[in-house]
Design a protein that fits this description.
Elements: H1 8-34, H2 44-52, H3 71-84, H4 86-105, H5 108-120, E1 126-129, E2 153-157, E3 160-170, E4 178-184, E5 195-201, E6 213-218, E7 230-240, E8 244-245, H6 255-258, H7 262-287, E9 289-290, E10 293-294, H8 299-327, H9 334-358, H10 370-382, H11 387-399
Parallel strand pairs: 1-4
Antiparallel strand pairs: 2-3, 3-7, 4-5, 5-8, 6-7, 9-10
Helix pairs in contact: 1-3, 3-4, 3-7, 3-8, 4-7, 7-8, 7-9, 7-10, 8-9, 9-10, 9-11
The protein binds flavin-adenine dinucleotide.
Length: 405
């Protein structure tokens, strides 16, 4: 049923991105990562070069002037970018995810008003915001009690809604020009029956900004440092009802149909970090001599490398299958979709720690770069839902499932 062998076109795109990563991302990312000020750590020059290569628009439909790539292709590219740097890969994973959401659930007018200007924007990025200071895991499980979940208010006023509240930790929050914001349109209903989502532009060419929306704090994170995570503040921000994506009150309920690739892209991002750690460990183990032979010739090291390789290939198969089912909704299985990111992040943190230890004392030296990979590997234990929250949601689905093989 599935064939995950890359097509000629996918292979060509992977090679293009791999060469870009070797040329632009790997040499520049460590300096951005080391910037104490997260705003100075935004890799504008990498973003510009990636966009010149066509990466910003690659997920946009061909008839709108984009590359028309499907989720499988994009997942492969997210993974390649993350081999160079996790933050850079998240910038594009979020971009592509939002563009795919708009194309799936948006109206033709929304395409004209927002996607076309995004194509003209040399640094245009996208973000999607659910998380708020008082709420995080509730919408991933999701908890049914109406008291649970995001509180950002969304009140109808004629042909507008008025948004009030704060989002936090949002990937691309500082750099995005196009946001999808989730708000509570029916506070008396549960999350899945009372949330709506809206397009909010910022500094998009030829498009007016909305008053009452500003970017607040930019977070100083331990890893994925290049992704400009930020707080988004809404104070009586009037947004046209015409900017609603998906149905009134049903945006979270329909999230899985709107963004079936979300978890697979998160898995692909963290997987790329795992490959980077594995590649470095393999290279070092062939070169480093101890006990009068390369350390890979010692059984403990070669067995560990074999185990790391098998774990990464398994994680990659999950990502590929997750992307495949996003492209084939008739086969979509929510249990699998929810399991990808937790599985990949657990594999990758283990691989990164083992790889760092293979460098002996050098592994602890910042300039060697293994510690950056370990810091990056921790991020997806937290991001895109905690593993416990996602696994708990999957567990609830499994409770009602027949035997699955
Ligand atoms: C780097 C990064 C990037 C992010 N990017 C985005 C983004 O682009 N957009 C966005 O909307 N959000 C984003 N987030 C938010 C992220 O999804 C949340 O931080 C995450 O879901 C956890 O929510 P929380 O921080 O409120 O933790 P909490 O929900 O407070 O969880 C705290 C602990 O309690 C556990 N827990 C919580 N609820 C339950 C329960 N019911 N049963 C059992 N255990 C429970 C959790 O597993 C965790 O261990 C990002 C976060 C990070 C760190």
């Amino acid at each position: 049923m599935f064939d995950f062998t890359p097509t000629e076109e996918q292979e060509a795109l992977k090679t293009m991105v791999r060469e870009f990563v070797d040329r632009e991302v790997k040499p520049k990312a460590p300096a951005y990562d080391a910037e104490p000020d997260p705003i100075k750590g935004i890799p504008w020059d990498i973003i510009k070069s990636a966009n010149e290569l066509g990466l910003k628009d690659i997920a946009v439909r061909k008839e709108l002037g984009g590359g028309g790539a499907d989720s499988q292709t994009l997942g492969m590219l997210v993974e390649e970018l993350a081999v160079g740097d996790l933050g850079t890969s998240v910038i594009y994973a979020q971009n592509w995810k939002v563009i795919q959401i708009l194309q799936h659930a948006g109206t033709e007018e929304q395409m004209k008003n927002y996607l076309v200007p995004l194509l003209e924007d040399p640094v245009g990025c996208c973000a999607v915001a659910l998380k708020e200071p008082e709420s995080g895991s509730d919408h991933f499980i999701p908890i049914k009690d109406p008291k649970a979940g995001p509180k950002m208010s969304c009140v109808k006023d004629g042909d507008h809604v008025i948004l009030n509240g704060t989002k936090e930790f949002i990937s691309n929050g500082y750099i995005a020009h196009l946001y999808i914001i989730f708000a509570r349109s029916d506070p008396k209903a549960s999350l899945t029956e009372g949330m709506s989502a809206f397009i909010v532009p910022r500094d998009l060419p030829g498009v007016d900004n909305f008053e009452g929306f500003r970017v607040g704090r930019v977070y100083d994170k331990i890893g994925e440092r290049l992704a400009g995570n930020a707080e988004l503040i809404f104070e009586d921000c009037r947004v046209p009802v015409a900017n609603m994506v998906a149905g009134w009150n049903t945006a979270l309920r329909d999230w899985v149909q709107i963004s079936p690739q979300s978890n697979a892209y998160a898995g692909a991002s963290t997987l790329g970090v795992g490959w980077a750690a594995f590649d470095r460990a393999l290279e070092y183990s062939q070169m480093r001599i101890q006990g009068v032979k390369p350390i890979i010739k010692h059984a403990n090291i070669s067995i560990k490398l074999a185990d790391m390789y098998a774990s990464l290939v398994s994680a990659q198969m999950m990502v590929r299958r997750g992307c495949w089912q996003a492209d084939h909704p008739e086969y979509f299985d929510l249990r699998l979709a929810r399991s990808i990111k937790p599985f990949c992040s657990k594999v990758v943190i283990k691989v990164a720690l083992e790889a760092m230890q293979m460098f002996g004392g050098n592994g602890a030296m910042r300039d060697v770069g293994m510690e950056k990979l370990v810091r990056d590997a921790t991020i997806f234990l937290h991001s895109d839902g905690t593993n416990d929250a996602l696994d708990r949601g999957t567990g609830e689905l499994l409770a009602g499932s027949p035997i699955i093989r």
